[in-house]
Every structure is written in C-alpha cells, then in structure tokens.
Amino acid sequence: MGTVTPSEMHPQIQAVTDRIRKRSADSRREYLEFIGQRKPTEFARKRLSEGNQAHASAGCSVLDKAQLLGASWPNLGIVTAYNDMLSAHAPYETYPQMIREAARDSNATAQVAGGVPAMCDGVTQGQTGMELSLFSRDVIAMASAIALSHDTFDGAMYLGVCDKIVPGLAIACFRFGWLPSIFVPAGPMPSGLPNPEKARVRQEFAQGKIGRDALLKAESESYHTQGTCTFYGTANSNQMVMEVMGLHLPGAAFVPPATNLREELTREATKILVSKTIGHDYLPVGEMLDERSVVNSVVGLMATGGSTNLVLHLIAMASALGIQMTPEDMADISAVTPLLCRIYPNGVSDVNHFHAAGGMGFLIKELIEAGYLHADAKTLTGTLVDQCREPFLEDDEIVWREPPETSGDTDILRPASDPFQKEGGLRLLEGELGESVIKVSAVKSEHHIVEAPVRVFDDQNDVKAAYKAGELDRDVIVVVRFQGPGANGMPELHSLSPVLGSLQDQGHKVALVTDGRMSGASGKIPAAIHLSPEGARGGAIARLKDGDRVRLDAVAGTLSYLDDLQEFDAREPKIFRPNQSAEGLGRELFASMRENAGSSSNGASFFHFTGQNS
Questions:
Q1: Nearest to 138, CA basis, from 320, 388, 407
Q2: Nearest partner of 246 among 194, 298, 302, 183, judged by Cα
Q3: Global pTM?
Q4: Fold category of 426-580 in CATH
Q5: I need a surface site. Which of 49, 55, 306, 609 has the fewest CB within 10 A?
Q6: What per-residue confidence (pLDDT) applies to 579?
Q7: Where are the domains of the chain?
Q8: Residue 249 Ramachandran class (φ > 0 left, ψ -120 to 50 alpha, else beta)
C-alpha cells in the first residue's frame, strides 16, 4: 500500500476542461445563482407552517416525530428506485430502515420522500417496451423532483443502480443542487455463467443450432440472484461514474449485496450525508461538482471501456449542472486516455473480477498519478485523492486503506504505464451521413474499417427476418433508421448482436449504422450509433437506399457515402410514419417527449436547461 501522488494534468485533458469551462461560463454562473437562492440558513422544516409540518410527520414513528416537529435535527429525504422485479434494485427493500436507524445514531431523521420507476432493459430488450427506456430517465428525474418538492429535507439520498435510473436521479439531484446529496449503491450479484459462454449460446440460438430451453438455461445461469448484472454495461458504468464524481463513498460501487460491509457502507453514507447538512460542514452538491468532476467522469468512462449510453447521459447530466459538454469533447478525451480495463464485453472477466484485482481504488490512483484525472475535484470525503481509499471491516467498523500498489490481475486491470491500448474506447465518426459515435474497445482492429453495400431497414424485427431468410449472407452494412429519440424513443438494438455477430464470424464484413442506440453490453460488431441528425427529422440516413455503398472508418473517424453525392443529396428523404409505434404499452403517453426530445448529440433529453441547445 502507498499514498497517491497527483501529477501535472495531461495537456489535452486540461484543454478540454478549459474549453468546457469557457463554453459554459454563462450557463454555469446562472446555475450557481439559481441554487444559491435556495441556500438554507436553517433546517428546511422551519420554513413550513404548522399544518405543513404536521402532514410531513404524521406517518412517522413516535421516536422520529418529536424531532421532526421540533425541527431540531436535520432531516434526510430518501429517493428510492426499489422494486423486487429488478435484481439490482431488490436489495433496496431493507435500506430505508437501515438509513433511519443510522440517521438517529447521527442525531438526524430520515424519510422515504418517494419512489421512482425503474425499468429493466434486459427485460425489454428487443421488445416494444424498450421504446420507453430512454425517456424513463427524464421521467425518473421528474418523479424525483416531485418527491423532493415537499421541501422538508436538508439532504438527499438516492438509491439507484441501473441504466436510466442513475442518470435520471442525477439530473434531479443536480437541479436540487442546494441539497447535500449522496448516491447509495447496492452492488453486483455473484458471478454466474461466464459472459463469453452466454454470448456463444445466444449466437447459436440465432443460428438455429440450439432450442429455447438451452437458451433459457444459459440466461438464467447468467442472471441468477439479487444484485447488478456483472458485465460492464450501462449499470456498472453508472456506478463507476458516481464513484469518480465523488457521489459514492470510496470503494462502494462493487461491494456485493447482503454482506456486512455493504450494510455498514450504507450506514456510513448516512452518517457522511448528515455531516454535510446545514449546521455542520455544509456541502451542496451543485457547488461540490463542477467542470472538473464532469471531465473526470468521462476519463473514467474511457479508461474502463464503458457503455456508449453514458455518452447521452453524461451530456444530459452535465447540462443539469449548467455545464455544456459535447460528443467532440468526449472523443477528444478518449483519444488520449489509456484503456486500463478489460471487463466483458471488452474482455472475458466481470466486475467482480475487476473489483478483486484492485477495482476503483487502483484505477483512480493510476489515472491521478498519470495526470488524467483532476485530483483536486471535490468529493463527499474531500477531494478525488481521498476517493482512492478502500473500505474494510475491522471489529464491525469501517476502516479505510490506501489502494494496492499493483494490480492483482493484469489481464483485467493494468497500470497507466502499461495500458491495453493508448486511447479509450470511444471515437466520433463524421461524414456525409452525419455525426455518430462508435465504441471500439471491444472491436478487433481488423473490423475497424468496413466498406460494403447497405441494406436499409426501418424496424429491427425486419433485420432478424432478413437474416433468417439468408438475405444478409454477404458483406453488408445494416442500416436501421427511424430509431432516434424523435421517432420512437431511441430503443437499444442489442438484440441484433447475435445476428450480426454470426455474420461476422462467417467471414463477412459487417457493420451497423443507426440513429438508435446499442446496449452497454455491445461491442463485437463495429456500430455507428446515435447518428445525428436522425432520420425522422430529415437526417441523411433517411435518404439511403439498398445497395448504396458506405464506408465506416473508425481509424480515420469517418462515416462516408461512396456513390454519387450529388444524386444522393438531391434525393427526397423517406418520410417517417409512426404507424403502430405511437400506441400501446403506454407509448401514446410519451408523444410530447418524442416531439420535444433534443438530439442525441445533446443528450436526447426532454429537458432544455439554460444554455443547452435543443
């Protein structure tokens, strides 16, 4: 073990930070003025009338009611994404009682302010309900705002893990930026069926080599108990981001559920939050976080080969802080950030193996000492240097230790001096078809350039039908359009991975181009995703026809149309007609979100905060 020694910042990381700060000067100033107007001078309940206070405490235990009515202790609001269908969120069932007890031990009270919806992309993947997935992020933000609108809280605790849930909670957290806040994770499930074996079974099912019984057996062995799915998809990328931003306790992200350490971390999180409320060491989250925190989150994402969904989410989250970030900023950070992790789908190991090899403490230490992270960025426990510590139990008490000096397994986690590759997992693609992003950390180098005729689809189910009919047995760039936020809510297209992966394994040159998303678990197939402008809003993808030749070049960073450009530009784009995609499973309730959603390059958000471009 040893101490962490910060280095001078990498010049390009510093340059990107400076340009984000300059671009955001006005919007950030307005944000800080906005939350400054709410800065408390006393406990929140003292602003309420006697009738307000009576309503706010009527359901509490007698033990808490005296303190609530007397307004003599700080009161914490819990916003929870608990439900018992999601393995990652089922552990939260017992958290409120733990938090209430820990709050009393710290001379505070705690109440569940409200619950937010939490849908599982694993359940809706390839299904109609996936069209609500991205918009659930903004619904979660609004539901959190309703929970906190009672304005009777002096701090907020957010219980959430998975794909849209943490970003939605974060957006609300930042808009209530005058409140000290902390995110409390639940941890990953134990490792099950190895991820490469799961991928192999899925691909064999797509090829018709095995039946549904074998597929269901493999899936059930992969997702088998409470906790987060163990691959490094969006959920676990969220946990990494919260830790690098300092919104978790150090080392909390990947401690398993239902362990003594997990419970003590939850109690410790409560204690830390109480210490940051008014009357103590007051630390509002909107002032704690700034441009350095946002850049640190991007560096962490690139160094770990994290989910492309975070490209959307981090832009939307930054906007909620009055900070304007672009995909170009993220690509420029990726270009100089070393890839230090190989976690499935970028390797064969899962997050439990990563945690055992040194985990977040080792990762943050390495990135600080190599000059890629802003070590002076504020966190709940000090600065990012303090975030490198690891939690352990001694006599049922948490003790913090320095991170390991060396990785426990260099096939999973490496030092910055010996990375898996010299740049991160994300690249920006630009060209005649628009702007898109590609995750290359899991794509073999021989597949970084694909030049082939396109086959155009307006629905992902038509891709699967064409595959089964043998129509895609050739070099092909599969185009799936009308999948953007304005068309159908930008569903993930991960269910196409077994189909496209099978074609690639047969020796064909294969790529995907779409204005939709891919899952955080995707990566084997080169995929130009989040294409903007989207087809439903007149983007160039709406002018493509079967047989057009396109070149996806992840090396040069281009997505090019290779045939007659003059003829292509003169084409009338195909008109998007929503037909049945506008109704059923509640999709009709989200019409206004589809109409008003921003572009993917601006986070695809329904919200347009001050300084954010639509």
A1: 320
A2: 183
A3: 0.94
A4: Glucose Oxidase; domain 1 (3.50.30)
A5: 49
A6: 60
A7: 11-190+225-401, 426-580
A8: beta
